[in-house]
Amino acid sequence: MTRTLTRESDAPAPSVRGGRDVDVVVIGGGVNGAGVARDAALRGLSVALFERNDFAFGASGNSSGMIHGGPRYLTYDPAVTETSCRDSGHIQAIAPHLLFRIPFLVPVEKSASAKVMFTLMDAFFHAYDDYQPLKHGKPHAKLTPDELAQLEPGLRGDVLGGFSFDEWGIDGPRLVIANVLDAAERGAKIFGGTTVEQIERREDTGEVTAVRYRDVRNGRTGRITTSAVVNATGAWAPITASGAGLPATKARVRGGKGIHIAYDRRLTNYAIAAKSIDGRQIFLEPWENMSIIGTTDDDYYGDLDDVVATSEEVRYLVQGIARVFPAITGARAIHTYAGVRPTLYAYGPHEDGLSRDHQIIDHGKHGAKGLFSMVGGKLASYRLFAEEMTDILAARFTLGATCTTHKVFLPGGDKKVSSRELAERLEIDGVAARRLVYRHGSRVERIEERIKQRPREAVVVCPCEPILEAEVRHVVANEYARSVEDVSRRTRLGLGACGGMKCAARCGQIVAEERGLPPRYGREMALRFILRQARTRSVALGPAQARQEALNQATVRAELGVADVDLDSQRESEPR
User: Cα separation of 54 and 83, whole Å?
Assistant: First the structure.
């Protein structure tokens, strides 16, 4: 692929207009908010980005982990397929270290209508092939039963044949963090763990003038003046809009809950498409060093800060996959995760029939000039969505600068790093080196420098991934991580087979050291993480594993020597 990308940009340095603290306040640290903050900073706007929980806490960090075209949208929303495929190509170009190919297999079961269905599906994938060049994918292939069995022996045998098609995987939280880091390095002010409690407006004109915020960890409050606010809070969008005095219906979304089940290893080298009992499309995919089953799509009316899978949802997914891949019933589930899609609102259609397109709401028509809400969208087309939002901001501030986010590398994407040579230089395990390079790209050199200065930091903290102490300290010092859970989101610490039992305590100790907190804070955040992971795992356990789980938790509590922590609190309290 020919590269014309750059690491640096000719965009002007941010300068504040009109005597305000910043030009733009972006609320929401998911991929859309981070993307807008980056684009706006690149174009020379001064930006403040607020996230109440942690970056990628919501749907961006709990997705299927794919920058895909969405072939199923082709039948009823082809524009979404086209934009997703096009933006997939751009994301591959600016963050090549984060992308990995996921080939899909689609088996076709024998039935009275199977031959007709096979012909129709072949025509469908021919249509999808037209979009593959946009995302550098391979064209589909028709497969015989023998070819399917050769590619994946675990597939059920009574099939007429099948198809293969091509998609791309990505680590969603790493993509979000890369956008946040780039925005910060270009002048954006970053406020993690900070909630915007009020969007102030002029009484006479209704124009946005400032936001009031509170640090949820220590209670400190503040105020920033601005003339533009972007509500990029996803499923929280109606709540955020109400902070400006608007009815929640002015930024309405239809939240759709999606859950996934993670398994302790790669069960197959191909993703496998299947159908659930109600006909929905679900899948089993190899993802990084494990396997994932997904996903559900149900209207959600619960607590957006505490979205968890249920045992019924787990059984629904496993049942569907077992029809084509029976071995899934004996595989070891290690955790589940769940998020809420901020789907465009429509009353009546089934969840699967809702549009996956995106929309920008200008609340000027509601009397709140300068306030915008971003609703809908997909991980695969976040960059385009952010570009459209920043185009509106650029016009508002009469900027001539155009979007360059498709041409400027994200941090770590500017050059290749050999993981083999890195392993040799640092004398570390080759797998640890590969995972480091995957997550950080060329920025791994900063972690390498840490290890050269402090060789003891080359020790492995999390053996499942594996993760080095130097990386844990790096993400606390440089990537806004403030807890064990934050470190996990950036590095995948504790998301392997042990569920944090072997690494959370040491990670908590390191986080407390890096942040200058008393040791008890490290122990408490470690226990909170372990119990939270156990909660996500419990819905997918069999009786024998559940009994072992109870014993493990009791042992960990005793070893850490701390009382029960408040799991209703999403963040640890901190000294003021």
Answer: 28
